[in-house]
Design a protein that fits this description.
The protein is mostly helical. It is built from 15 helices and 4 strands.
Length: 420
């Protein structure tokens, strides 16, 4: 049996590699059309779920045959899953404030997204060539995202959104005047965070480039992505992008290159009616005195302060250790950490934060050990992506946004496959 396992390892790894490639291409490009809705729930099964299932089965086979060791952060992730399961059981049997099937499906979603960390850790650990292959594939789909965004703006290409329960049924809309761009993503903030990931990778390539003409070509490639980013009009996405650029520039001591890129981003903001309008409304919160509370002058801020965050804290008070279960806070909380403490309590939040701390530590170790250009680019870009993701998560449910969460865990898994 061992001999048979060795004989099948190479062809199965080759098949697994192209399943991983399909995921990295498919996830950013295919809009979130539901394949079917699961019985008695609002949770939809989508095409990428089937592809991920195949990849997970391949991963289980690899573990069964002992082709891969467990990656760093495995223990923290398993603890987080265990706490999530306890929280779901508590919500179903004790607080009894959730639909049992819906809660378990939301719990399964968290496991599904994080499974990409293990999948790409294994695929990246096979060889340096694999890591280079996947790094290139992370960048390639942005061309399609850009072209589809143009099609939405100028040719009324369909918009598939999950910004509310009705839209998530797969209704094909068109981009209306004054509405932020989402391209192939389910919302404008998803698109903005995705573009911050890709710009981080391109900037990481730039800081390792010595030839001026190559550096210029990279910046020329970034400019249309910045323009597309401005059309998404996400303030939180902008925070993530600036923080990512700053983190990479500081880590590599390329402050001047970071300054140039920041200037280009700043110029795009000045010419973005969406961003300028949203910043203006936010400034009014502090600049005016009215009968209404100033916070009500900015809709996004008001929703968080008046509705979503207090609701999360009420759930925390009901069950401080385990929260009130996945799905108990509705579709969104606009803040991953406060959502975590509301749905899974203090234990859930601390176990989730332990994953992020362990990830940061593992990335930092590999930052100093990366030996070749591919690995250096991959690990440096993951620094920026990690900073962007964790900062934006203060105000947006990025770890529950499927496309973004899948790509984040894929990139971090691939980065940690670099030998420390």
């Amino acid at each position: 049996m061992k001999q048979l396992a060795k004989l099948t390892q190479r062809p199965l790894n080759s098949l697994f590699k192209y399943i991983g490639a399909a995921l990295l291409i498919f996830i950013p490009l295919y809009p979130k059309f539901p394949v079917l809705f699961l019985p008695s729930s609002t949770v939809a099964l989508r095409a990428e779920d089937l592809l991920i299932l195949v990849a997970v089965l391949m991963l289980i086979l690899a573990y069964k045959n002992k082709w891969v060791k467990s990656p760093p952060v495995t223990y923290q992730i398993l603890v987080y899953w265990a706490v999530g399961l306890l929280s779901a059981i508590s919500a179903i049997l004790i607080t009894k404030n959730v639909d049992p099937l819906l809660t378990l499906l939301h719990f399964a979603r968290r496991i599904e997204y994080m499974s990409l960390f293990f999948i790409f850790y294994y695929l990246g650990s096979i060889s340096k060539e694999n890591r280079k292959f996947f790094l290139q594939l992370l960048i390639l789909p942005v061309i399609g995202v850009f072209l589809y965004g143009l099609a939405q703006i100028y040719f009324s290409a369909p918009v598939i959104s999950t910004m509310n329960a009705e839209f998530s049924k797969g209704i094909a809309l068109t981009l209306q005047p004054g509405v932020q761009l989402s391209s192939t993503f389910s919302g404008h903030y998803d698109l903005a965070v995705y573009l911050s990931f890709i710009i981080s990778i391109l900037f990481a390539i730039a800081v390792h480039t010595k030839k001026k003409y190559k550096l210029g070509a990279i910046y020329l490639a970034i400019i249309p992505l910045i323009w597309l980013f401005s059309k998404a009009g996400s303030r939180m996405g902008l925070l993530g992008l600036f923080s990512s650029v700053a983190a990479i520039a500081l880590v590599k001591k390329k402050v001047f290159l970071g300054f140039i890129l920041s200037v280009l981003i700043g110029i795009s903001v000045l010419f973005s009616p969406h961003l300028m309008g949203r910043f203006a409304s936010f400034v009014k919160v502090f600049a005016q005195e009215e009968v209404l509370r100033p916070i009500q002058q900015d809709r996004s801020t008001s929703i968080r302060i008046d509705v979503e965050w207090p609701r999360a804290m009420r759930s925390f008070y009901k069950n401080p250790f385990l929260g009130t279960g996945y799905s108990s806070l509705g579709l969104a909380t606009d803040g991953d950490y406060i959502r975590s403490i509301g749905e899974t309590g203090l234990l859930g939040l601390l176990s989730f934060l332990s994953i992020l701390v362990a990830l940061a530590r593992s990335i930092w170790v590999r930052l100093k050990k990366a030996a070749n250009m591919t690995d250096k680019t991959l690990i440096v870009s993951s620094v920026g992506i990690f900073v962007a993701m964790t900062l934006v998560a203060i105000f947006i449910d990025t770890f529950e946004a499927s496309k973004i969460a899948i790509l984040f865990w894929s990139i971090t898994g691939l980065s940690l496959s670099i030998k420390s």
